[in-house]
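Task: encode each sequence below as structure tokens.

Item 1
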Amino acid sequence: MGRRSRVAEAMAAVLLLALGAGCGSRLPESDFEDRGRTPTPAPSDGAPIRVGIITSATSPVGGSAFTGPRDGAKAYFDRLNARGGIDGRRIEVRLCDDGGSGVGNNECVHKVVDEDKVVALVATTALDYAGASRVSRARVPDIGGQPIGAAYDTWPHLYGIYGSLAPRSGTPGWDGKLYGGTEVYRYFKREHGARTAAVISYNQSASAAYARLVERGLKAEGYKVVTEQVDFALPNFRAAAADLKEQGADLVFDAIDSHGNARLCKAMDDVGVEVTAKVTNVQNWTSTVPDDYKDAPRCRNALWATGSSRNFEDTGQAAVREFRDATEGLKTHSQWQLEGWAAARWFTDAAKSCAEAETGVTRACVDDFMNRSEDYTAGGLLVPVRFERLAEPPERRRTCLSVARWRDGRGWVSQGDMNDTCFEVQQLAYEP
């Protein structure tokens, strides 16, 4: 059971980029052309194993928008070190904040890859991954990164948290197109009888493009689709909400930012809109819902999230419980933190395998572990992930889905098991 491209997560993150301020230019590739290509030798016995975490910790879209994977990965390595590390060697984490710009990202890649000589990158979460090609040329495995943009479906040696079936030979996807399934829409149709779906967007190019992608998927699953577009500068959410009520929408999807979502929800409550689900994605699957939607109790309790990892509130699962125990000191929790934790575990499994091999823990050995057509679940935290290089994109795939619903007083409540919530769905092309 392979992993599909998660269109909602990737496109929503790109939407954040487009709705934020400009992120600066990229440094010329020639500035780094000959750096970082030589293999990194295995460290001597007992020396720390060095990894890098590049994050847009400060960025035009807000200081905390992209820090979840970093925090989850760091928590994993802290606990691993407390338990003796890998074969007696501790993990030394080198953090770098790229500021959300291409220039900053290239500088971070140069620092951690060329100067710090890390064995691998882990849980990369970069708003503009301008240095991706240089990471690939240096043959540094980048493990469990968030697919903001198309880098993880473009370059070899990059292994995104959701897997990839693309050739990854320097061109995004297949001839510049990526593919994603319609499993989210199938789920609400099959499990909840939804038939009419609304898509809310801004009159802004990236927002409108994402909305069209969602509309295509909904129509492919047989929905009646209601589209609502509001002004980016002066959005009239109340008018949009009133039309949702008039049209009798069962579901609401959006192509707007988090602040706009909160205002939309308040407007829906104000005019008395009741829907089966206000559907959001993994970026907004957080414990901050009560504060984010404090003025919209009805809409807040209609929030549903979908993704490809086990609900961070599902503490009945041992792997989730371990994550929550280790991150007990964090003020908030999120699905992205759990996915960063899973990325760190992925690297650790690779490094432990290499520690037992003659080569030791090297970039090449870790990369060989990652570059396999075998499902990986991080101990049950992920829907099975794999990497293949298919010459042609799949027309249909069996895909599985993690689903949770917000309930005041209970938090995010899992809706079935993600490994059983599976659908055979068509794959739709889109341009990143």
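Item 2
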Amino acid sequence: MVITAVLLLVGGLLLAYPERAGAAADPLISRGKTATASSVETSSFGPQNAFDGSSTTRWASAEGKDPQWIRVDLGANATVSRVALRWEAAYAKTYRVEISADGTTWTRLANETAGNGGTDDWTGLSGTGRYLRVYGTARGTSYGYSLYEVEVYGTLDGGTPPPTGAFTVVAAGDIAAQCTASDSSCAHPKTAAQAQKINPKFYLTMGDNQYDDARLVDYKAYYDKSWGAFKDKTRPVPGNHETYDPAGPLAGYKAYFGAVAYPQGKSYYSFDEGNWHFIALDSNSFDQKAQIDWLKADLAANSKGCIAAYWHHPLYSSGGHGNDPVSKPVWNILYGAKADLVLGGHDHHYERFAPQDPNGNATADGITEIVGGMGGADPYDIENVQPNSQKRISGTYGVLKLDFTDTGYSWSYVATDGTTKDTSPKYTCH
């Protein structure tokens, strides 16, 4: 009887406050979109801060003035089902959430008359327009209005939001053999030339960047003469050959790449681009608790909608090295965080897998893995084709050209002659 009474009470509250009812499952459509505001406190508190996905940046209006507003251009006509507002201490006591087709005539979606700050999550909304604004009419403090985030959920043009925030990345592993362009059979100058021609936002390397022992003198003599041309735009990870340096494991790697390879004094790190969170890991030390603890904390702090990780030893591979279980615990963690993409090297071939879970079961919510070990080292044969392997290429040197948007990704394998040897399906982020 008590449970029944509680359910009736909750149902009654939802009927009494329909604007707060209903869980909206529509995607976020406002991240990174163009924003304007009636005023800003200083240039550090611009309106774009309320749409960048960060919990530490914010928009703040001029102090002591009513009314004030912030608005976002969704880029196309949209049907809006939910708006979440995350207020700073300077909140609105009364405000309206409004939508407009032209930015001039506004229709109310939600109305707050007794705001108390914190998070306001307006669900069960129904409105159509290209522009959405939060219009504050009375401040809750003596300051202005300040929002960490304005999140708008819905669909654009009656369907899936179009790709935004697009950027391209080039990636490869197993790169610099001890040869230079003066040797016509030397491959890494050719993969570097193709990588540079693509002109991506940045470059990723998946380890074994320099053979055979990754000494600093070899980095300078070989890698630097090819892939070193864009070292300042490269985000590397080490492979097992980086641990063979007589001067100490990773000594030459660290000395050559400097702070970019050790931005936090560790051989693993992360960074963001657009709506993507990239995690660079050192698979030589997956058995060390410090890196695993760091990875868990890094994922817990992530605010981006899509996740990619890269390291040297792939969990699944049809090449000579085969599957490497050292990566299994990391896959478990990434799978639990709904990661999308993993890149590896070690085996000197190209291979792509269908999305799969850490146990190798094909599943739509699984991680897509690519082996991209054709950056310049001698190729390996395909030896034992693994389940869920969709495409394998050996003997053709090349690079991965990865295309990212705010909502998904795809890639192609581009040979040194510029021809595309494989093209992936288009994937949507989990």
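Check on item 2: Residues 1-24 have pLDDT under 50 and may be disordered. DSSP finds six helices and 22 strands in the chain.
End of task.
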